[in-house]
Amino acid sequence: MKEEQLTYEQAYEELQQIIADIESGEISVDLLSEKVKRATALIQLCKSKLTSTENDVQKILDDLKSAN
Fold it and tell me: How far is Cα 41 from Cα 59, in angstroms, rounded to an integer?
């Protein structure tokens, strides 16, 4: 699934699984590198979605204020 198609919840769940895998301590060095890279991409995706949502909500609130 492409990252753009992931929902926030899907990205967050995958990130939680990566964290659990890393904390288990049973990951090879090569796989650890891949997991950290994927986690970084997921964090960026989640941050982007949160920022976008925050901006949308702020715009809605601003529109409500100006309508009164």
Answer: 27
Q: Could you list the residue range(s) of the whole structural domain that residue 48 is in?
A: 3-67
Q: Using CB atoms within 10 A of its CB, is residue 18 exposed (0-12), middle (13-18) or buried (19+)?
A: middle
* Calpha distance 43→48 (Å, rounded): 8
Domain tally, the chain: 1
Q: Which of 7, 8, 31, 6 is nearest to 21 (CA)?
A: 31
Confidence of residue 68 (pLDDT cuts 50, 70, 90): confident
Q: What percent of the chain has pLDDT over 70?
A: 94
